[in-house]
């Protein structure tokens, strides 16, 4: 499209309002601008076309022949644009909320709660996109990302959902006869780690735990790690949010914990989330 052949859209908008109302003042009120601004827009259009578009008629105004032709085209064009926008908004309103999060957080924190949200808000559909990949909200079409970190991601809005207090957990049977007065007493026991969790490696190294010791075992996903620790195979480092149900049920016990500081799982969205996403955010915050 050659935009050089199209005049100012603001001018066309002002002209459409004048043509419909046959009044500068009524057009100005509708557009929430001054009458002088409306007149200036029309003069700009007339200069662009080199034609007179309106003229006085008694105490009001009338359209010239070129003005009538332009008014019909502009009204039709704006109506087509409006129809397209309304269709797009309608499609967006029907689109499920896409939630990106890690498989472990989806399985152990969100899924046990999500059924209540569906029951309370059957009109809001959700689509889970579990992945270890850091998604781009815009290009990946993601409405909400639940991310682990300190809550600072440029160009986004982040709100703390759940603290990422790290716990060392195990079964009561595994810890039977073993003491855990300090972390040092746990260093030589079997630890269970997820292969790709670099934060776990860093945590272990900072505390003098040999991440690659012979007795330690590694699993491709945190779900398998949790299955192994529930089976009593060793100790596991987990965020409290991921093992709350196990602790409450007594499946696992807390062996050691640390202050998480600002680390946590954050609800990350674009700066202005749409209405039904705000409903979900408020609900998740209350459910945390």
Outline of this structure?
The protein has 288 residues and is an alpha/beta fold. The protein has helices spanning 9-21, 24-31, 35-49, 65-94, 103-120, 172-175, 198-206, 222-230, 240-249, 275-287, and strands spanning 54-57, 60-63, 97-101, 126-130, 144-149, 157-163, 166-170, 191-194, 217-219, 235-239, 253-257, 264-269.
Total tally of structural domains: 3
The fraction of residues assigned to DSSP E strands is 15-25%
Please state the average pLDDT score: 89
| CATH topology assignment of the largest domain | D-Maltodextrin-Binding Protein, domain 2
Work out the radius of gyration: 31 Å
- Order of strands, main sheet, comes to 4-3-5-12-6
Write the layout of secondary structure elements.
Elements (H helix, E strand, L loop, with lengths): L8 H13 L2 H8 L3 H15 L4 E4 L2 E4 L1 H30 L2 E5 L1 H18 L5 E5 L13 E6 L7 E7 L2 E5 L1 H4 L15 E4 L3 H9 L10 E3 L2 H9 L4 E5 H10 L3 E5 L6 E6 L5 H13 L1
Parallel strand pairs: 3-4, 3-5, 8-9, 8-10
Antiparallel strand pairs: 1-2, 5-12, 6-12, 7-10, 7-11
Care to describe what's here?
The chain has three domains: 91 residues, Arc Repressor Mutant, subunit A, CATH 1.10.10; 94 residues, 3-Layer(aba) Sandwich (D-Maltodextrin-Binding Protein, domain 2), CATH 3.40.190; 92 residues, Periplasmic binding protein-like II (D-Maltodextrin-Binding Protein, domain 2, 3-Layer(aba) Sandwich). Helices cover 45% and strands 20% of the residues. The chain has a five-stranded mixed sheet with strand order 4-3-5-12-6. Strands 9-8-10-7-11 form a five-stranded mixed sheet. Helix 5 links the parallel strand 3 and strand 4. The longest helix has 30 residues. The model has no long low-confidence stretch (mean pLDDT 89).
